[in-house]
Amino acid sequence: MYLVNILRLREGTKPVPLSRLAEELGVSPVSVNEMCRKLQDQGLVNYQPYRGAALTAEGERRAAHVLRRHRLWEVFLVEKLGLEFDAAHEAACRLEHSTPELVADLLDRFLGYPRSNPRGEAIPRQGKPKETPPIPLVEATIGDRGRIVRLRTTGAASAFLRAQRLVPGTAFEVLGKGEAGLLLRVGHDQVVLASDVASKIDVHLS
Fold it and tell me: Checking CA distances to 5, which of 19, 56, 59, 169 falls within 20 to 30 Å?
């Protein structure tokens, strides 16, 4: 969990402050300090006093290995079983450590190789998470598939999107596109979106 949380919390190449790591894990700074020193002795972490901890190449490989499973389970539990994200996250924390490689690969294929979890957080590929910036849905073309990352709408537009199940984490396919808007497939339904609304929906394409 230390390695995974360092990977999740880091910003660029900066070390993750131990105070931030302690807060995330719900343990004392002293415990974090001791564990980071142990992980450094194992070649998994570079620990810098007063600055924080950063992953070595091997530490990042191991963390990405677990994080991939965690976020795949979040996608499955939210999209296929209808769980709220917080409940899916808790269940994924238990499943991530007991999922064999073959099962993770089959789950990935079953889900259509998603790029991100329901919160738009990247799913690691080839041992390293690739953060690709989302694009406005209006830029997608016919045949594109993807997932909604975030909405930048307000008021009636937001209410309409929620009613159509167009919320972060939802998978879609673009069936048609014109100057006025887009035709999407969402599950078994089809939804028409005006271009001005589609411009305020950020997505990751598969």
Answer: 169
